[in-house]
Specification:
single chain; 195 residues; mainly alpha; 2 domains; two-stranded antiparallel ribbon; 6 strands
Amino acid sequence: MKKSSTVGGRKLSKKRQWIKDCWDYHSQHIDECDVAPDWGDWETDWNMCWCCGKRTTHLQRCHIIPKSLGGTFESHNVVPLCGACHDEAPDVMDKNIMFEWIKEQQNPMSGFGLGRYWHLYDTLLEGATKLHEKYGKIDESKLKKLIKENYEKTSVHGGQINNKGIYWKNSTREWIMKRSFKDYEINCEVEEWEQ
């Protein structure tokens, strides 16, 4: 029988105990940069979805290897996710895929799994193609810097439907990318003019 953990002298509830067990196990094996919570901040981050960072008291036990494929409820095979991320998480036999998937969902600026850019495919393709045709090779570090600067000019939104939590709207992300491509173009024109 597992013994209950205490934090700050208080015994954890059953609801929090399974999350703490996962936390204790995975914090020894997974880099905290690959998940939303900060391993050193249990008191503030215990209720955070490990993918998107949404805070909820209704985290779900998401199996790394699904129960239907032989996965167990042991802490090494469970990840605390919100319902929306749980619905999107992969159901495969490979135990490494879950954390690869979580990392792939991350927004490069916030580190949370809000960086699902699939809706930006056309914007990204069009912007990158235009820059490449006009200026040749794109300096990735300069473009990333502009994207980061433009993220800082925006705000997240508090979801009103389906407990969406705090997130960047698709329209805001589209503006960030379009503005970043435009800024890159302006910077290239200034550099050419100064030469």
